[in-house]
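User: I want to check something. If I give you two sequences, will you return the structure for each one separately, not as a complex?

Assistant: Yes, each is folded on its own. Here is the first sequence with its structure:
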Amino acid sequence: MRIIIAGAGAVGTHLAKLFSRERHDITLIDEDASRLANLSSNYDMLTLQTSPSSIQGLREAEAGRADIFIAVTPDEARNLLICMLASRLGAKKTVARVNNAEYLGEEHRKYFASLGIGAMIYPEELAAEEIMNSVRRSWVRQCVQIQGGKLLLLCIKVRKGAPILNRPLREVSLPESPFHVVAIKRRGETIIPHGNDSIRHQDAVYFMTKPDCLDELKVITGKDEYPNVTNVLFLGGGSTTERALTRLPDFMHAKVFETNEHRIEELDGLIGKSHVMYINGDGRDVDLLIEEGINKAQAFVASTANSEMNILSCLTAKRAGVRKTVAMVENLDYIQMAESLDIGSILNKKTIAAAYIYQMMLKADVTTVKSLLIANADVAEIVVAEGSKATRNPVKDLALPASTTLGGMVRGGKAYLINGMTQLEKGDIVVAFCTDNSLKRLEKYFK
């Protein structure tokens, strides 16, 4: 597949590196030579120093031959213009990064499509959705909702005392069990488990389950004493926090620590919720946190542009007794360190954006792809096609790649967990958990 990426910033560079590993024909264009330095020599991609908003530059990049053209420069208006020009030149699909949630409305999609803008991505909006999914369930590291919440994929850190520990999975994850263990992250390695494997202290375990089974899962993982989140503190009043606050339920009270008084006034006008309070101060100040009732908060979200600040402030909140912390960590080099510090949920906008764009590249009918940062894995919703290989045998006889497992499915609007004897049918929406970039290899089973 021929992919052209305009903008060699953090998101564009990450996408180019990710896609180049799958042997796609990648061209990364930017007018700043320093951003492109060393990329073409270290990765299988072509770099081109030119203005991506120049028609001549786009022609030089052969935008008209692109299967997918992605514009992710920091300038929203420029991204829209670039996609319009690329589409006019012949690009098959275009994706523009935007900074305005209003553009994402269903009522505007046809209008933008008529201009040649096939899809738009707002990373801060996607990150905000991840944050609020995580905050709503304080005992869960990550929550992925499948088909509007009919199925849930939950990452849970399991500790000493949990009833599920040190028992073979064949004894605790039976075909009739209300959950399916799809993966285990242990000491930096992601394991697709089998019946003889067991869960150990400090494992991050990925469970597929249904909403009505959460109470049972909470008990068996030793999380039954975790409180419901009604008070949450936010460090930083940037765009990600703004979008998260728009999703804040009425029963949840929030305090936002922001040092810029003008930004506080702006947020107050935009959000307009009486259960949101703004504190003009540094949320890293322990005395200020105590004064503002951190001991009464059940969750703490650090979403500033500074990864180190977010990690350290979450550690501070943990020591103050907050059970649930969420850190935005934009520096990928810090992810493993943040995980080892056991600070809670870790999110990265680049990987969230990459997952969204990645689903557009798949040939099978893949409706959703989520990037599971800590597991270095993807979870995808895949529609089973008529006559596909997946429908010919029970799951246990499909010879699926060892780095994949099928966790659940939705059939006729009803959710089911998948086991070895499950027979897939046309139209089933299957949830696949994939490590080692194996999602592309899984496509052939479903198309």
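And separately, the second sequence with its own structure:
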Amino acid sequence: MNYRFMRLIVFFDLPVATSAERREYARFRKFLIKSGFVMMQESVYSKIILNNTAGDALKENVRKNRVKGGIIQMLTVTEKQFAAIEYVTGEKHTDIIDSDERFVLI
């Protein structure tokens, strides 16, 4: 079998002016974390996916858990494209194992 690892990156900018909006923000963020997404920076989360089919299912799950206000965007890139990210300021955190090495196929 030939697998092509990819990344699904979710960007979001949600309102947090009221307590209800803050609750929705927290709910969406917790959903992402429980779904296996890793925070790249504030309001940018990524998850490694096996292929486009798995990506499509994950995108649909994000759509089902969306917040009504604000903006949520999704981008799928190959693992090779993701690895080519250039850090202009700051550095990559190595305390989180976020690679296909921890991926277990049963």
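Because they were folded independently, the notes below concern the second chain alone. The helical segments are 19-34, 52-64, 79-83. The first helix runs from residue 19 to 34.
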